[in-house]
Amino acid sequence: MNIRKSTEEDIYEIMNCINTARQLMRDNGNNVQWTNGYPSQELMLESIKNGFNYLIMDEGAVVATFDFILDDEPTYAVIENGSWLNNEKYGVIHRLASNGKAKGVAQFCFEWCFSQFPNIKIDTHESNIPMQKVLERVGYQKCGTIYIADGSARIAFQKA
Fold first, then answer.
1. Residue 81: CB atoms within 10 Å
2. Where would I find the N-acetyltransferase domain in this sequence (predicted)?
3. How many angstroms separate the CA atoms of 157 and 160, rounded?
4. Which fold has domain 2-159?
5. Domain locations in the chain as residue ranges
6. What pLDDT score was predicted for residue 104?
7. CB distance 146 to 78 below 8 Å
8. Is 8 in a helix, a strand, or coil?
């Protein structure tokens, strides 16, 4: 597998990954994350324009997408029931989505991001058990609870 930045021409594959991941969440009992059309095609096009979106490729084919941002995440300013491992500059991973055509994409993504910037923060919903398991397996630590823009809680993880 390898990783490359996405372009607007990749939007169909990106949305395919997102829609497949959304269905996988539902199949695993997570009915609360990625609802009401989130993340939208418009949001993903904006992410591409800003240079945040990447594709995970396997033998030349798209197998997953994610955003990797080297900037502060406003919703991480306040953390409850714990604390961040440090207050240094960090990278953020958002909207990891696989189309189900390759195994190990989450681990590959998390390890690649850490190799690019060795202080990473990420959050996920408490119902997203598969994501939590992968994060813990590759060394991310639960740090506490953050609240996203709509006010809903997310479990915050960090690896430093």
1. 12
2. 1-160
3. 10
4. Aminopeptidase (3.40.630)
5. 2-159
6. 96
7. yes
8. helix
| pLDDT cut 70: percent of the chain above it | 100
Tell me how crowded residue 74 is: count the other CB atoms within 10 A of its CB: 9
Q: How many CB atoms lie within 10 A of CB 51?
A: 13
pLDDT at site 23: 87
CB 14 within 8 A of CB 65: yes
Query: CB of 47 within 8 A of CB of 5?
Result: no
* Residue of 63, 50, 137 lying closest to 92 (CA atoms): 50
Residue 116: its pLDDT value, please? 98
Cross-strand bridge partners of residue 3: 56
Q: Which residues of the chain have pLDDT under 70?
A: none
For residues 122 and 157, what is the distance between their CA atoms, to the nearest angstrom?
A: 5
